[in-house]
Task: structure prediction
Amino acid sequence: MKRISNKALTFVTSLIMLVLAVGITAVCFSDRGDVAVISSGETYSPVYSGNRAGKNVALMFNVYEGAETIDGIIETLKKHSMKATFFIGGCWAENNEETLVKILESGNELGSHGYFHKDHSKLDEKGNRDEMLATEKLIQRVTGEKVSLFAPPSGAYSVTTLKVAENLGYKTIMWTKDTVDWRDKNAKTVYNRATKNIVGGDFVLMHPKEHTLAALDDILTYYEKLGLKASTVTECME
Result:
């Protein structure tokens, strides 16, 4: 019998190890465009959209500023009998507890946006957990509610982020449409990005900016014409 050379044996061994590594950790793309991260046989997947068969869309406001604008956003949502989810930065909430309560009491939803707007893709397990728990505890202390949604700042996350979030009972939320209103300070631009090709299940990312508030009434009116309703992220996923 012909013996296998050391070089051939080394190649075969390396190939087997590569196959095993791919089997242990892989990234898969679903038909919705979501990314599922498979690590050590477990699947961790952020959520990019809600129920495509429904008529709800979710407006998501990431909040590290804009307390003076949030009242207007709440009133505009109320005018149309619609809702939104506000992902709260913990360091902002420390100085805006009354606004935090008002968001919840007006029927809207609270989620976590971390505490110091850090890049979660660069944080280790403890760093991710500390950011999430600090905001969770603050919101719970002020409102009595435990949040169950986490939106990573700048959309930056790692497998570690997804694992920690799931272990803490969170769904990691991303977005379908980004208005980029933090950069492009134009109400018409915000309107166009929040309405173009909008369909049920879309998550629309916003911030509490004056120009976003200026566009909000027209955005919600457009949704009404299409038979769509702005809801919380949780309702949109149902």
Residues 15-34 have pLDDT under 50 and may be disordered. The radius of gyration is 21 Å.
